[in-house]
Every structure is written in structure tokens, then in C-alpha cells.
Amino acid sequence: MQLSKIGEFGLIKKLRAKCKNIPPEILAGIGDDAAAIKQGNIKILITTDMMIEGIHFDPSFTTFYQLGHKFLAVNISDIFAMGGKPKYFFTSIGIPKNYKSEDIDELYSGIFKIAGKFGVAIAGGDTCTSKKGLILSGTLIGSADRIITRAGAKAGDGIFVTSTLGDSAMGLMLLKSQKSEVRSQKFKNKNRNLKFKTRNSKLETLNSRSVLPLIKKHLTPEPVPLRNTSKVSSMIDISDGLLIDLSHICDESRVGAVIYKDKVPVSGELVNTAKALKADPLNFALKGGEDYALLFTASPDIKTTAFKIGEIVKSGRFIIDENGRKRKFKPEGYEHFKRK
Ligand code: ADP
Ligand code: MG
User: Fold this and answer.
1) Which residue, judged by its Cα, is nearest atom 17 of ligand 1?
2) One domain for residues 153 and 134
3) Are 258 and 318 in contact (CB under 8 A)?
4) Can you give the C-alpha Rg of the chain in angstroms?
5) Which terminus of the chain is more exposed, N or C, with fewer CB under 10 A?
6) CB within 8 Å of 153: residues ≥ 6 apart
7) Domain harbouring 23, CATH code
8) Do residues 39 and 25 lie in contact, with contact meaning Cβ atoms separated by under 8 Å?
9) For each successive 10 residues of the chain (340 residues), what is the average pLDDT?
């Protein structure tokens, strides 16, 4: 069977079925943002994520500093998605022979910056050569008093997201379309003086105000934990896109969902840029990945600053558009093996 047929999620489902005899101390295993393991009174969280050159990042428009930042940030986001606190990070790297040690210094300065911000210690890793491209594999250990999985959503719960969506996907599209212009800034700017040159006159007028924040969100996402999780029934971070990640909650919780298109929050920067490009910002917000916002369900009386975008129902997955029309949604977004 071709992997492109079953996709990343079909493959994980097959692998999950093979992993039997799960001991009782594994509170959450394959199928969540992180594994949760009980050791005495302590609940440990463990998550692992890879970043591969050419798949997850393009060094022609990503500095090593930004890459280091994102490498740890995406792992932190998975710990936050379980309601946890990140603690110890293991960094395994496969490096092509032609890379310089300064490149790796830059990578680690990005890692250390965000590690310092979130109180994470680097506790180990592995180093080897790679035949082609830089390979990063990070494992982050955390802990939580109350574990929140993807499996607790109940009919009647509200569906919430913690921030605007779609910025990162638009940022990536802009970077890809302007590849050569950004290339020359490699190493020089870190994050501080990020510049964006464009030959698209429509975008030029938006440059500093709208375009840069979108690019920044893509290159250096900043995960934000949910402070009060007492009424939260399920949670996931949005790494592959709202529709895919909400589908994961529906699958694991065995429920359905209804979301309202006009309630999905989008930033002014995304709206302005999409307008200039004659694109639909909601398309980026629904199907674009890597926002690393949290998507959670909770009893509707929860007091929260998060945006309510819909409700959990017994079955079916629906989106209601701005004219009140209801249609089924599919888990469209980013899935490995399914894209070229
Ligand atoms: P996330 O996007 O939050 O990082 P993934 O979609 O990568 O989550 O993974 C979903 C679940 O599948 C996780 O529990 C992860 O540990 C598990 N998983 C992914 N790949 C494998 C694999 N090759 N073997 C076992 N479990 C896997
Ligand atoms: Mg996740």
C-alpha cells in the first residue's frame, strides 16, 4: 500500500493498533499531543517532534536562530496542549558535513532563548552526520497536575481557540513566494531586523504593518499556555490546521462538532494581506497549520478570554457559513505523505 493513500494519520493508526499491552501507568499514549505517564504521585509528560530540512523548513529563508526557537517552541506547544509545564529538552541533530559549527551555535542560541523564557533545561541529545539536509529531533519532558487529553469533549461543550488563526500559513506562503529576496539576510538579522522585500506592489504598501508579523509568526511561533484549565474537557494544539486538529478531538472523544465560520478569529494583518492578494483569510484560518494556538472544549459557562467558535455535538462535523448554510467539513490541512 502506498503511503500517499493512507497518509500520515492512517499510518499512525496502523502503528497504534500494533502497540498493544499498554500498562496502566500510561494515562495517555499514542493519539495525543504528548504521552502522560504516572510515576507515584507524579504525572510526567513526554513529547517528541522532528523538523526536517526541505519538509519543515527551508534554510534559504529561515535563520538557524529562528529554527532553534521554533524547534523548542513546537515541542513546548504539545506540553501546553496537555495542560502541562515543560521542563527538560533533549536535542538530537543530524548535520550535513558542509555545515559550519557557527550554524549550530546559532541554532542553539535560538533554543536557549526560548528555553530561558519557559524555564526549560537542555538535558541531552544525540549528534551525527546526515547525508542530506539538517534533521532535528526534539524530546521534551514536562509534568502536569491535571492532564487534559484529546478525549474528554462532551456534547454541549463549547469549542474555543486561544488566538487568531491562519497567520503562520499566510506567512509561509509569503516567504515561499519571495524566497530569493529573503535569502540574503540569512544569519545577519536573527529576528530583530527582519526585513521583507517584495516585487508585488500591492504587498509593498502593507510591508511593515501587516506582512512582517505574519512572517514572524511562521518563523518564530510563541506558544502561550492556558492558565485556568479547571473547566476544560479536551485540548489540542493547532499544528496541522483547525479542521484537522478539531477532527482529532472528535475522533478521540467520539463526538461531533459544529463551528461557525464567522466566529473563527483572524488578525487584521491576515485580513489586510489576504485582501491585497484577493485571497480568503478564512481559508488560511481553517486549513493552515503551525499557528500553535490551543484548541479546547469546555463547559459553556467557562470564563475565558479565548474565542468561542462552536459547539460539540453528538455526531457529524459541520461548518456554518456567514449566510447560515450548513455543510460537512473534512479534515483538510497539512498531512505528511499526502503532499508532494
Ligand atoms: P502532534 O502533531 O501533536 O505532534 P502527531 O500527529 O505527530 O502529534 O502524533 C499523534 C500521536 O501519534 C502522538 O501520540 C504520537 O506520539 C504518535 N505517533 C506519531 N508517530 C508515531 C510512530 N511512528 N510510532 C508511534 N507513535 C507515533
Ligand atoms: Mg500537538
Assistant:
1) 30
2) no
3) yes
4) 20
5) C
6) 233, 234, 249, 250, 253, 255, 297, 312
7) 3.30.1330.10
8) yes
9) 90 93 94 96 96 92 93 98 98 96 95 97 98 97 96 98 97 80 44 60 70 91 94 97 97 98 97 91 96 96 95 98 94 77
- Domain boundary (108, 143, 178) is at 143
Contact 170, 290 (CB under 8 A): no
Same domain, 188 and 243: yes
Give the bridge partners for 336, in sequence order: none
Query: What is the CA(9)–ligand 1 centre distance, in A?
Result: 9
Same domain, 33 and 110: yes
Structural domains in the chain (count): 2
In the sheet with 307-313, reading across from the earlier edge strand, the strands are 232-237, 294-298, 158-161, 307-313, 256-260, 317-320, 326-328
261 and 234 part of one domain: yes
Q: For ligand 1, what atom is nearest to the CA of residue 30? A: 14
Q: Is the CB of 49 under 6 A from ligand 1?
A: yes
CA of 12 from ligand 1 middle (Å) equals 7
Query: What is the span of the domain harbouring residue 219?
Result: 149-340
In this structure, the answer to whether residues 273 and 290 fall within a common structural domain is: yes
Q: 118, 143, 168 — which closes off a domain?
A: 143
Cell for 198? 517584495
The verdict on pTM exceeding 0.85 is: yes
CA-nearest residue, atom 8 of ligand 1? 33
Residues 183, 114 share a domain: no
- Torsion, Cα 314 316 320 324, to 10 degrees, reads -80
